[in-house]
Structures are given as C-alpha cells and as structure tokens.
Amino acid sequence: MSDISAPLTVATDPGWAKAATKDFDAFLQDHANCERKASALAMSLIVRYADREKILSPLIALAQEELSHFRQVFDLMQARGLRLVKDSPDPYVNQLLSILRHGRNERFLDQLLLATLIESRGAERFRLVAESLEEPALKAFYKRLWKSEAGHGVLFVELARNYFPAAEIDVRLAEMAEHEAKVIAKLAWRSALH
Q1: Range with lowest mean pLDDT among 2-6, 38-42, 47-51
Q2: Domain segments of the chain: what residues?
Q3: Residue 163: pLDDT above 60?
Q4: What is the residue-averaged pLDDT of the chain?
Q5: What's the CA gap between 140 and 123, in Å, rounded?
Q6: What is the pLDDT of residues 174-184, one digit of tens each?
Q7: Which residues contact 106 (CB under 8 A, 6 or more apart)?
Q8: What is the crossing angle of helices 104-132 and 24-48, to 10°?
Q9: In 3D, which of 192, 62, 37 has the Cα closest to residue 129?
C-alpha cells in the first residue's frame, strides 16, 4: 500500500522503515515517549480549553487510548529488557511548533491541526513499520496502531469543525501540511518515529 493519511502532502520514503527499525530497541523507547506525549497533549488541551465543551469527552477518550498504547509499548520494552529513556527534543515536532500562531482562537485551531498532521504521519509510519517487521506479533501490533492513529488524525479535524468554518480549517491545514512536507524532507532518518 502506498497511500498516505489524507492531510499529508508527501509520503515517507519506504526506505525510512528499515533505517528506523535498524535499532528496534531504540525505536521502541522513542515510541513509548511519543505515546506518553500524545496522552499528555490531549490532557493539556482539555485543561487549556476547558470552556470548549465539545472537545472534552473525545479528548479524554483519546488520552486514555494513548496511555493504553504507552502501556502496551512499555510491556514490549519490558519483555525485551528495556528501560524507559529520558525524552529528548523531537526535531520534527519542534520545527512544526514554530508555525503555531498567537491569539487564543488561532492557537487553538493550529494546535488541533498540528495534532492532525502528527497523528497522520505517525499512522503512515506505523504502517511502514508493520510492513517491514518480520515477527508476526510485532507486525500485528503495529498494524493495529496504524489504524488507531489514522483515526486520531481525523478526530482533531472533526473537533476543529465544532468551532471553525470548514473553509478556514482547509486553508490553514493546507498551509501547515505544506510546512510539514518541507520539515519531513529535511529530517535525517534515525531509530525514532520522527
């Protein structure tokens, strides 16, 4: 399969998966940190935008699901004798954060759309990882994550539609996706999700 998640404008080079999983232990450790941060982001949005009631229940469910994914990755790590590692700055996310606008409404929309792009890229890459792994249990695990993450990308756009016109969302998402494509093209491959 070569399709990518809807908002993404460029696909990850299929060779990325071999480079990313060359040191699969390091990939798992990074993956655990990504799941933990995804859960924390959902909780952060709940606290920051508690007055936006239509986002609360979906984000609570998302935070719980991402925390469940964290637990599953942690269990895989323990089975391999791995420990959690200190989180290091994510060059992909940091470059994407640089385009977030100021102003409460603008920032809110941008945070939702940034999450859409990150989740969509994660889904695409989990699919590539699933296709490149040999071990059936790991292959199945990453295939499940791919489907889950693809749904998360759609969720954030749906949440935005509660508060912003579709045309505004589409224009801003296209701008952000163009920036994301430039960022992804320049990143060095490493044993990490991004």
Answers
A1: 2-6
A2: 21-186
A3: yes
A4: 93
A5: 14
A6: 999 999 999 99
A7: none
A8: 160
A9: 192
Does CATH place domain 21-186 in 3.20.20.70?
no
Tokens of residue 120, six digits: 């969509």
Query: What are the CA-CA distances from residue 79 to residues 72, 76, 95, 184 (Å)?
Result: 11, 5, 34, 32
Q: Cβ-count burial of 139 within 10 angstroms (0-12 exposed, 13-18 middle, 19+ buried)?
A: middle
R_g (Cα) of the chain, nearest Å: 16
pLDDT at site 153: 86
Number of other CB atoms surrounding residue 190 within 10 Å: 16
Cβ contact 108:55 at 8 Å: no
What's the pLDDT score for residue 5? 57
Give the type of residue at 126: F
pLDDT over 70 for what percent of the chain? 97
DSSP tally for the chain: helices H, then strands E: 7, 0
